[in-house]
Amino acid sequence: MGKKKVGCSVDPISLTLDTNCIYELESPASAEYLQRMRKLTQRKVITLRFPAIAASERQRTAGRLPNFRIFRERMENLDLGDIELLRPLAYVGMHYVGWAIIVGPENRKVEQRIHEILFPQIAFEASEHCARDDVRGRVQWRNAKCDVLAMWCHVKYAGDIFVTQDRNFLKQSKKPRLEALGARTIASLEQAIRIVGG
User: Where are the domains of the chain?
Assistant: First the structure.
C-alpha cells in the first residue's frame, strides 16, 4: 500500500492505533517505532488516530480511568497530544461525556458484524451474555465491546491501516473478513511501519 493520491497531491495514509499499541509505545523497547512514526507524521506521510474508546478499557496499571483528561495526558507524554481521537458509539457506563456519538441502525449493523467476526462466543448484548451480578462475565463483555468499537471507529472514519498488537484481529480466520468489511488493512506495529515506508 503506497500513499493515496488525491488529484495531483498525495494524501497521508491514516493509521488507527488500538489500545495495545498505546501500551507498546509506552515501552522503552518501542522508542524507535515511536520516533519513526513521529517523523512520518511530520513529513505528512501518515496521520495517526486513536479510537476514544481506548480510554474506557481496563488499564494495565489499575482499573478504569476516572476521567478522559488522564487519557489525554498519556497521549501528551508520548508526544501525541495532537493526535486525532475518533468518537465511538455511545454505551452507558462505557463512554466519556462528549467523546461518543449516537448513530442510526446502519452503523449498529456494522458494529454487530464486527462483533460476530471477532467474538462469536460472546453475545452482542451484555444482558444476553451474562447476568447483572456476573462480574467476570461483565468484564469479558466490556473488553470485547471496546475492541469491537475500536474497529468500528476505524471502519466508520475510513482509516487505511488498523494497527494492533492484539492477535485476535490478526487471525487468518478473522483478518480477511474484517478487511473486506471496510478495515482495508490490518497490521502489527512493525508491519504498518514497513507498509508506509518508514
Answer: 12-195
